Amino acid sequence: MTITPSKLTGAAGAAAIASGLLYGAIQFVHPAEEVANVTGSTWAIVHYLTVAMGVLGLAGITAMYLKQVKETGLLGLSGFLLLALFYLTVIANSFVEAFVLPPLAEQAPDVATDILGIFGGTAADGSLGPYEGISTFAFAIYFLGGLTFGLAVFRARILARWAGILLAAGSVSTALLPLFPHAVGRFAALPVGIAVAWLGYSLWVSERQTDDFPAAGTVTAGRGRTLAQ
Q: S-S: 180 plus which of 106, 121, 184, 209, CB 3.0-4.6 Å?
């Protein structure tokens, strides 16, 4: 198989589809942030999938940005960098939750409880140092990254514009999370998951269309050969 930029971009679109669907699905099966759940198989599987979601999402938004880099300008660059940082944060934190928390839950349950409380809404007591700020940091880059990248997509008119609006609106809706219990508030992720999958599909379709039609000024002669006119 010949690897081309178009095929790589299409693969990144498929990665974004998978990332968006995973992001939404995880919200329905994520166990409660309790020490008793940390050593269970469901906890492990959910956080393995969350790491995968972050990796696939990072690949997807990178291709989305490169597809419209000229059209999105500084707004698109800002949104891309913020969302990329968000996905990297998700990968790092989910790695901790998947591989570090289970042994901690058995050997130092108080420390595990403090870590779980960061995203569960429990007030920090300072014992975890800078790590206690990861929730606020993740919220800020998620909010700003989704908003700016979504607006940049809408303005660029390259990918599905209304998916960009959904991404922006879904990210902004997280400002309402303090009004709801954490177990309910996590479903605010659904619009963003749908938007990412939608944008991934739009990217994948655009690359399929590119493959289906030869570039202007060329004709295909024989199998696998392209001759300039």
A: 184
Question: How many folded domains does the chain comprise?
Answer: 1
Q: Return the H-helix or E-strand segment holding 61.
A: helix 41-67
The amino acid sitting at 142 is Y
Domain membership of residue 218 (yes or no) is no
59-108 pLDDT per residue, tens: 999 999 999 999 999 999 999 999 999 999 999 999 999 999 999 998 99
User: To which residue do tokens 């995203």 refer?
Assistant: 119
Instruction: Dig out the tokens for 12 from the structure.
Output: 């990144």
pLDDT tens for each residue of 97-148: 999 999 999 899 888 888 888 876 665 666 788 888 888 899 999 999 999 9
Q: 216 lies in a domain? A: no
User: Do 139 and 65 contact (CB within 8 A), yes or no?
Assistant: no
What does the angle CA 119 – CA 163 – CA 15 come to, to the nearest 5 degrees? Answer: 70
